[in-house]
């Protein structure tokens, strides 16, 4: 199947591991990713914080291109997804005349990656390719904010207790642990200007994962991944803790379970090296 | 009853009206149940609570809300907006107030957060997409963090993070821009 693909800026940079695993897994599942032509930044937190009009237009430009491309568009970054959906809503709503772009609003669907990969048909496909069941993996799925909230924008039905990644993990043979922090905030871009605030929020998630007896996080948001992974050593040092909680992308685990050898390369780009955890549970 | 210590507030709906005209959000739908504040993950770092921000907007206490830290500490996680029983988009109010504080020339109490947003928009302006390395540099200079960290000999962690990102292939050396940069200039002059 063919689907439009909006990678978003960080997948060209700090989330290159995520991007590589998405492309590889989609290729294996016969999903033809057609990158959105000349896509631009969605505006992210900065635009919606201090420039409402630009926030709608920056994201709206991409939705307009996607409508021309006339393919449903899959978006891995939850914030991009949220901003694109917001623009779509505003640009087809009562105030649409204030903005540069005109949308039809019903030509295409904008789909979050987890929502896409957890469709029954794709789960069946994944299941049929399974070579390494991940039964020993003790993981919590961590969804973060933007793919769920607010439901008026995201269209999510299970926004307080999302299950998409849990369903994918079950298909991979694992039994994801249910916990209370699936959609709690990781601090997001506070990580630069208010590191103290972000660290407090991240540490709460570590504590929650440990209390749930998990050995790792599974995520689909590269901002959550960065905050939980790249700063773990620094948080341990500052807070006198000794957390060891690898933060794995759901697509990396799909790749691993369907026998893609590149997964070691993806994991090699993480800050918290998952190999000890994988060896301990008998998966490597 | 002694009213000597009571602050007298003259309510004004000017701010709430302007909010409604710009965003369609009505703060008068709020009946102060405080569900927003109770679910907020960032209250520990706020100077006033989200429900108080809404109440102050109802009363037209513009200077107080435009000068508070809370609107900048909000991480836009949208928990409040999602859970409000009356459908008030509280996170949307925070955004409206940030933009208004900037327009009013308020000295932003969370200056680094504001610097980050400006650096981010600047980077979009440059090539239509974010180049994280350049964004970091712009932010470090604009926020004064570069100078502060150099003075305190505290560049170590940032340098180590940057080098690791490079080594791990997560920090490209050259940015990718879009073709239609003119279009971005129209959105962000």
Strand residue percentage of chain B: under 5%
What's the gyration radius of chain A in Å? Answer: 19 Å
Q: H/E order of the elements of chain A?
A: EHEHHEHEHHEHHHEHHEHHH
Oligomer description: heterodimer
Give an overview in words.
Chain A is of the alpha/beta class and 284 residues long. Chain A has helices at residues 16-28, 44-50, 52-69, 78-90, 113-117, 120-128, 151-154, 164-171, 195-211, 222-230, 232-239, 250-257, 263-268, 275-280, and strands at residues 2-5, 32-35, 73-75, 110-112, 139-142, 216-219, 247-249. Chain A contains 14 helices and 7 strands. The model of chain A has no long low-confidence stretch (mean pLDDT 97). Chain B is mainly α and 189 residues long. In chain B, helix 8 (111-127) packs across helix 9. The interface between A and B is large, with 57 and 59 residues.
Condensed summary:
The complex is a heterodimer of chains A (about 280) and B (about 190). Chain A has about 280 residues and is of the alpha/beta class.
List the helices and strands and how they pair.
The complex is a heterodimer of chains A (284) and B (189).
Chain A: E1 2-5, H1 16-28, E2 32-35, H2 44-50, H3 52-69, E3 73-75, H4 78-90, E4 110-112, H5 113-117, H6 120-128, E5 139-142, H7 151-154, H8 164-171, H9 195-211, E6 216-219, H10 222-230, H11 232-239, E7 247-249, H12 250-257, H13 263-268, H14 275-280
Parallel strand pairs in A: 1-2, 1-3, 3-4, 5-6, 6-7
Helix pairs in contact in A: 1-12, 2-3, 3-4
Chain B: H1 14-23, H2 35-39, H3 50-59, H4 62-66, H5 70-73, H6 79-83, H7 90-103, H8 111-127, H9 132-142, H10 145-151, H11 156-167, H12 181-187
List keywords for this structure.
heterodimer, A: alpha/beta, 3-stranded parallel beta sheet, B: 189 residues, 12 helices, 57% helix
């Amino acid at each position: 199947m063919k689907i439009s693909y909006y990678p978003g800026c960080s997948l060209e940079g700090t989330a290159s591991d995520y991007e590589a695993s998405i492309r590889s897994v989609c290729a294996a599942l016969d999903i033809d990713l057609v990158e959105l032509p000349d896509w631009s930044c969605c505006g992210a937190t900065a635009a919606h914080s201090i420039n409402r009009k630009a926030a709608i237009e920056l994201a709206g430009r991409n939705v307009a291109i996607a409508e021309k491309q006339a393919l449903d568009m899959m978006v891995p970054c939850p914030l991009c997804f949220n901003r694109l959906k917001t623009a779509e809503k505003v640009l087809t709503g009562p105030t649409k005349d204030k903005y540069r772009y005109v949308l039809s609003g019903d030509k295409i669907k904008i789909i979050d990656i987890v929502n896409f990969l957890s469709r029954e048909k794709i789960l069946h496909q994944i299941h049929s390719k399974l070579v390494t069941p991940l039964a020993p993996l003790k993981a919590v799925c961590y969804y973060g904010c933007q793919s769920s909230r607010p439901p008026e924008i995201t269209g999510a039905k299970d926004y307080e207790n999302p299950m998409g990644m849990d369903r994918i993990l079950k298909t991979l043979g694992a039994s994801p642990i249910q916990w209370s922090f699936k959609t709690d905030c990781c601090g997001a871009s506070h990580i630069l200007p208010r590191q103290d605030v972000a660290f407090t929020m991240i540490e709460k998630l570590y504590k929650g994962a440990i209390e749930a007896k998990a050995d790792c996080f599974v995520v689909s948001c590269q901002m959550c991944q960065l905050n939980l992974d790249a700063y773990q050593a620094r948080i341990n040092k500052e807070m006198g803790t000794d957390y060891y909680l690898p933060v794995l992308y759901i697509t990396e685990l799909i790749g691993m379970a369907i026998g893609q050898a590149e997964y070691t390369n993806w994991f090699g780009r993480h800050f918290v090296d998952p190999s000890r955890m994988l060896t301990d549970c008998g998966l490597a | 009853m002694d009213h000597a210590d009571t602050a007298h507030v003259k309510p004004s709906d000017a701010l709430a009206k302007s909010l409604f005209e710009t965003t369609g959000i009505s703060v008068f739908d709020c009946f102060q149940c405080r569900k927003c504040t109770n679910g907020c993950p960032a209250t520990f770092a706020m100077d006033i609570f989200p429900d108080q921000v809404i109440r102050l907007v109802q009363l037209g206490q513009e200077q107080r809300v435009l000068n508070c830290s809370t609107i900048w500490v909000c991480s836009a996680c949208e928990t409040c907006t999602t859970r409000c029983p009356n459908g008030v988009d509280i996170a949307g109010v925070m955004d409206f107030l940030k933009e208004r504080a900037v327009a009013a020339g308020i000295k932003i109490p969370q200056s680094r957060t504001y610097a980050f947003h400006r650096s981010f928009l600047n980077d979009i302006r440059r090539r239509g997409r974010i180049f994280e390395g350049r964004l970091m540099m712009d932010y470090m200079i604009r926020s004064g963090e570069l100078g502060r960290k150099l003075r305190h000999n505290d560049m170590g962690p940032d340098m180590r993070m940057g080098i690791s990102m490079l080594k791990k292939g997560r920090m490209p050396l050259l940015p990718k821009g879009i073709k239609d940069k003119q279009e971005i200039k129209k959105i962000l002059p």
